[in-house]
Amino acid sequence: MDGLILAGEGVPPGNYGNYGYPNSGYSACEEENERLTESLRNKVTAIKSLSIEIGHEVKNQNKLLAEMDSQFDSTTGFLAFMEHY
């Protein structure tokens, strides 16, 4: 077998050089994983931002409700007071 070079001969283990067969499949999977990871990262960032905005809105609504409750209590007290006269 002098002069005959077998596929992968002289290439370090785990590195398939320019033959491309194993690396091309792995690379395609890695590229797809990277793309999906980036897409997921963008979605998580959007959801986080939305949840923060919802939290701010809930705080504002609770403050408004507390103010309304206080005003209703004042009005109820005033009406109760006026009933006696």
TrEMBL record:
Subunit structure: Interacts with SNARE complex members GOSR2, SEC22B and STX5. Interacts with LMAN1/ERGIC53. Interacts with STX17.
Keywords tagged on the record: Coiled coil, Endoplasmic reticulum, ER-Golgi transport, Golgi apparatus, Membrane, Phosphoprotein, Protein transport, Transmembrane, Transmembrane helix, Transport
Gene Ontology CC: one annotated term: endoplasmic reticulum membrane
UniProt entry tagged with the keyword Acyltransferase: no
Database matches in InterPro entries: BET1_SNARE, T_SNARE_dom
Domain T-SNARE coiled-coil homology residues, every copy: 27-76
Protein name: BET1 homolog
Domain of life of the organism encoding this protein: Eukaryota
Membrane topology: Single-pass type IV membrane protein; Single-pass membrane protein
